[in-house]
Each structure stands twice: as structure tokens, then as C-alpha cells.
Amino acid sequence: MVPVVGLLLVFAFLFSIGGLFLLIWSISTGQFSMGPKAAEVIFDEDEVGHPEEPAATRRQNEDLLHALAASERYPSPSAKEDDKEPMLRAALDDAARKPVLALLLSSVVWLLLGSVIGLIVSYKLHAPDTLTQSELLTFGRLRPLHLSLVVYGWVSMAGMGVALWLTGRILKTPLHRPRWASAGCLLWNVGLAAGSIALLAGWTDGVEWLEFPWQLDVFFVVGGACIGVPILTTIRRREARHLYVSIWYIGASFVWFPFLFAVANWPKLHFGVQHGVVNWWFAHNVLGLWITPLGLAAAYYFIPKVLGKPIHSYQLSLLGFWALALFYSQVGLHHLIGGPVPVWLVTLSVVTSVMMIVPVVAVAINHHMTTVGHFRALRFSPTLAFVVTGAVMYTLVSLQGSLHSFRTLNAVMHFTHATVAHAHFGVYGFASFVMFGSFYFILPRLTRWEWPYPWLIRAHFWLAVLGIVIYVVCLSVGGFLQARKLLDGNEPFMQSVVVTIPYLIARTVGGAMMTVSHFIFAFHVGALVLRHGPRRSEAPLAYVPARLGQQGAGR
Amino acid sequence: MTKTTFGFIDAALAVLFFATLMLVVIPSAQLANLQPAKGLAPYSDIARRGREVYIENGCVYCHSQQPSSHFPDEQRGWGRPSTPADYVYDYPHLLGTMRTGPDLFNIGERQPSQEWHLAHLYQPRAVSPGSIMPAYPYLFTHVEAYDEGVDVVVKLPEPYAPAHGAIVANADALALVAYLQALDHSYPPTAEDAP
Question: Which chain B residues in 32-61 lie under 8 Å from chain A, judged by CB atoms?
Fold first, then answer.
């Protein structure tokens, strides 16, 4: 047993070090200077140099064009010949409309529910005698419900909807079997509704991130398969020859998630501390191999597409993908540093956590080097504002995660609220922001209706940004102070509680701002879908991207 | 065509299988034949029910059950660092990752009193000033008259005691306290068999 484990560990470590050197070598020798034509598959033949932003008003689109054209880093626009491709795109969007709309709208409902419950939970932590009379509203039941709703209801459904839409669009192939996907959405919703009632009633598997009773998990496995199969068969039947990097992330995440979810939820398979090992292997993988790939797939599409400029380095994006797959799948055990689990396991997770720097840097270079020189564009493009902010937060939160996995630094974070701050930094700051941006791009295309009240988008953005910054900063500081008391054996334990109270209150304030922003967002989505609001004369709904010097042509 | 299409998905799955081998299969094999620690008793029926109450009410979200040598846990009286052999009867596991409240792996040794636990569950601030633990009044019943010898009455200090009648513990509260009292792993540790 021991020699086999040792051998595999050595293999895993060597592999990791090799990957790191490969990255350093390729960056230092300029292997990844500029991508090949593959990075341009998301554009039509003559589309590079032409931004596409359906979420912007006409005025914003004009400003966006001028802001981009003024930059030295912007590719010169190609000449426009005819409008065949836009018609194809309209057909592609139509093919996926029903399941995508169903998933996106469902996710917004779960987001509202999840946020309100999260806010109640946050308030209870500094006002513990609030709503204590019924077991339905006790902290220990609402907290897992909050997590389950925002992870499986909001981020997962939004991510799946965006993935479905991206699949048809990038592959230039109408989504295959869209009815399967709609059925999958229905099953997933049934699972969420039943699971929520179960958690409130106290029927739970009792394991963090895996609370929904395993009997109800069947809905998620079958529902997820119904959504995954159309994606995989569309990949098989595609028209576009090359598979763009977003498709790699989407395709892989739809085979990773069912496997992870089934292994971790399998009843009676796990035992004792081994159950703890599987628990955290899953919990970090659901972030790394499900939510992260869905978010990155969207960011890899929308950043270059809105700008009308291919991503910085295509090869680098592929290295980032494989490094993510290899390292992220093994990081989970850093949650049990110092715990009663085999030490070699924790060491393996610490090493792979640090190695996560490789894919994170790869993604960061790609996203930020594509955007650099065009930050003014964020002012005029709602999609970019959200997606680029999300991409920046991805870089920050991932590097923070790698640092925190070191045993010494981990001690000032372990067992404290700082972990919660980090989780929200990732799932909200990165994944949710990318999803918000994707909604702003996709929904006008699907509904053929422009966002009725542009100022609501700004309100949503600023409330969400301020909310998450207050949340993460305050709770991290509170967690750090809590850890200092916890680590000092001469301090009474109660001191570690007392010191956090002001920061817990600040977290409620940040959370309330985020929740308000979600109601604004949901109202706006509802108004768009119901075609309310002032009808502006110039709809940015035509499938023709705006063109410098001849705005309005082809509309 | 099909082969090149799906090559990346096969490879992506292979990578995950490798991770599963390392983080799930091998640890399972390593821990599969673990014997319970000497001194560790299986849960009694009432303690087992209490463990379910603990799970149903989400105690794990604030309380860990893993005294660690990385923290001054022994100094606080939370017990020696735990080993895998201490958890053989635990399913689902309740290791926890938060210490919003104290570690409970040895709460039965540290605080054996049923009276204290009942008062603490009914109103934590009655016995532990500054606590932010939720109160669990729904595990208790406010009665006008109680049956001596059958009902377990909660003894509460002045501002928290009811103006009339008494607070008696429900079956779930008694089971939960039995579980907490059973959380005592103060016996000597089993020699670590992990590499």
C-alpha cells in the first residue's frame, strides 16, 4: 500500500512541477505571443474590429466604437460585405431559445430566494434571538438552504443556460434536441423545490454542499444529463471545425459534474473520516470543475466578442484548461489541514492548490491582456462591465486561495469567517458577475427586446460591486481577528466571538446591498421578458454588429 | 471525426479519474480496515437519535469536531488531537470547518451536566453571556403544570425564567443532550497507522 501511494504521489508532484516549468518556459520564450486563427472562430469572417453589444443603448454603442477605435491595441476593422452570417445567428439563437430562457428565468427566481435567505442567516448571526420560535427558520436549516439555492439554483442553472446558448452559437450549429434541455430544466427545478422543502423540514444528508437528500439527488443527475446530452451531441454534429476553448470548458464540465455529484452523494458508500475526505474533495471540485469552467467559458466568449478582438493567446488558454483539470481536481483536502486525515492527502492538496497558480495565471494573462487598453469600453458596455469585473475577481480570489492553502497562512483563516468571505469572493465576485454580464448580452438576443431601463443596469452593477467589496473586506478582517484570538490559547474562546460582531453586522449591510441589486436585476429581467418599458426607436437588436463610421447600416 | 471531437472529453474524464483515485479510492482503501479506537463505545440509541437532531438543526455549520495540534485546543481543554480511529461510528461525518462556536468533540467530558445543556439550548445567553448561538425554544414546551419524575424541567436564571409555569424538555432536546454528553474522546489515542 505505502509504496504504491508514494509512487503515485511522486508521479503527481513531478507532473505538477513539469506543468509549472512548461508555463514559465512558454511565457519567457514568447511561445504564446499571439494566437492562431483558432481564436477567431467566434467571429464571422469580417467581424474582427467590430464590437457587438446588445445590452448597450445606441448612444453607448457609438461611444463604445469610438473608445475602441481610439486605442492603439485595437485591430483595424475588416471591410463588411454582406449580412448572411447574422441571419444564421438569429436562427441559432432561436433554436436554443426555450431551454435557455427557462433556465435563465428559473435561476433568477432561485437567486432572489437564496439572497433573502442568506440575508436572514447573516442577520441571525449577530441577532441570535431573531426568528427562533420555529425549527423551519433556525440558522442551521436556513444556512444550508441558502448555499444550496445559490449554488444549485442560481449559479448552476444560470451557467447551464449560458452554456446551452454558447454551444449553438460557437459551434454554428443549431442546438440538438432542445426539448431534452427544457425537460432537464423542469426536473432540476422540481429537485430544487423538493430539496428546499426537505431541508426546511430537517430531512438532510447532513454533509456540507451535499445536503439535499440523496433520494432527491436523482432529479439533478437525470435533469443534468438531459441538459448535458444536447450539448455533447451538438458538439458531435457541429458545423464549425475547430472547438473554441469555451466549448472545452463546457463539454468537460458536463461530464465532470455528474460523476462528482454521483460519487459524493452515493448513500452508505462512505464512512468516518473518509466521508470528510470525500466531502471536501467534492465541495471544492463543484467550484473548480463545475462553476469555474462554466464561468470561464462565458468570460472566454464575451470578452473577445463584445470587444470584437480575439483573445490574447489561444495556446495559453488550452494550457490553462488542462492545468485546471489536473490541479483543481485535487485541491479539496486543504479544508482539513490539521484534521484527523492522512497527512499525505493534505500535502497533495496543498501542492495542487499552489499549482493552481498555473491555470490562473494562464487565464489572467488571456483575459486581462485582451482587455488592456480598452478599459474605457467598460463604461459603455454593461456586459463587459460585469464580465471583466468577474474576471478580475477570478484572478484575485484564485491567487488568494493558493496562498491560503499554505499551512502557515491557512492557520489564520481555518475555522473562521474568512473562509466564508473567500467563498463569496469566488462564487459571487467571479461566477455571479460573469453570469450577470452574460444575461445582459443574451436576453436581448433571445427576446428581441432591448433592456428597457439602462439606469437599472448601472444601479445593479454598483450595488453589487459595493455590496461584495464590503462583504469580502469586512468579513476577511473579522475572520483574521477571530483567528488571532482562536490561536492564542490564553484568550477565552468568547473573545473570538465578541471580536467578530461589528464585522458580522457589516456583512449584513453588504449582503443587503447585494440582495437589493438582485431585486433590481430581477425586475429588469421581468420587464424585458414581458416587453415592458419605453420603446426606444433604435433597437440594438439587429444581428448586425455596429460598424464604425456607418452606424445604423443594415438595420 | 468523432474521435477527434470527443478526445478532449475522454482526456478530461481521465484526469478526474486520476484525482478520484488519489483522493477517494486510495484513502478509502487505507482507512477501510480501521479498527475503532480502544475506549470508543458505539452510540446508545438515544445518543444516536440525538446525533440526528444535531444534524437536522445544522449544528455542524458552527461547531467543529476535530481537536487539532495546529491550534491551542488542548490548552483550552478541547482534548487531544483526534485520529481516524475516533470516528469509526460516525456517518455522516460531522468534522465541521467552522469554529463560530467551540469544538465539541469532547464537550461531554468538559460539560457533563444535563441541567447546563438544557438551559443552554433553551437560551444560550442564560448560561453563556455573549454567545451568538441561536436559542432552540422549539425543543422545549412551556407548561403550566408538570409531572414530577416524568418531565425534565429546565432550570433558568432570573431574567430568562418564565413568569409562570415551567419549561420542560422535549424528547429531541433530551436526545441531543445525551449525544453531547456522549461526545467524550478523552481516552488515550490510538497509534496513528497512516503513513
Answer: 34, 55-61
Of B20, B57, B81, the CB nearest to A263: B20
Nearest CB among A272, A281, A411 relative to B31 is that of A272
Report DSSP letters for A54-117, one per residue: TTS-HHHHHHHHHHHHT-TTSPPPPPP---HHHHHHHHHHHHTHHHHHHHHHHHHHHHHHHHHH
Supply the mean pLDDT for chain B: 92
What 3-state DSSP class applies to B142? Answer: strand
A267 touches chain B (CB under 8 A): no
Size of interface A-B (CB pairs under 8 A): 244
Measure CB to CB from residue B83 to each of A235, A243, A340 and give the nearest one: A340
Is the pLDDT at A409 greater than 90, yes or no?
Answer: no
Cβ distance A343 to B70 less than 8 Å, yes or no, reads no
The residue of chain B nearest to residue A279, with distances taken between CA atoms, is: B93
All residues at 6 or more sequence positions from A208 whose CB lies less than 8 Å from its CB, including other chains: A144, A147, A279, A283, B60, B61, B97
Interval A479-490 mean pLDDT: 95
What is the value of pTM for the model shown?
0.93
Inspect the interface and report whether the beta carbons of A256 and B82 lie closer than 8 Å: no
Tens of pLDDT, residues A16-74: 777 667 766 766 665 544 446 778 888 877 788 888 898 988 888 889 988 998 888 88
pLDDT in tens, A144-161: 999 999 999 999 999 999
